[in-house]
């Protein structure tokens, strides 16, 4: 392989495929992947300005949640090993946000709260994606 050829990252392609499938099939309006400097590195369904606004607001919320979990009085109630932020689900009239922190990036999925999954016809199989 020459030095100029790009190598494909199969893990990255898998994540992108799953995110695109969510938008196609699951009532997701869009998604934003944000680095921990608050910069949207990849997004779908939003203009650049909107992605930046979402990223700023969500990063502030995640930072405040992490500061809350780090306080001593929280550790008196909840064991320290259980105070790691896993997900945030925030529902408004217009959107439902699912925020998932990862060690490198933060994923923001924006759902339509009025979305209803179509009824499956007899004999139709469930398409489940295992992560």
From TrEMBL:
Similarity-based family: Belongs to the GAMAD family.
Lineage, broadest ranks: Eukaryota, Sar, Rhizaria, Retaria, Foraminifera
Top-rank taxon, per record: Eukaryota
Gene3D superfamilies xref list: Dynein light chain 2a, cytoplasmic
Protein's name in the database: Roadblock/LAMTOR2 domain-containing protein
Domain Roadblock/LAMTOR2: 15-72
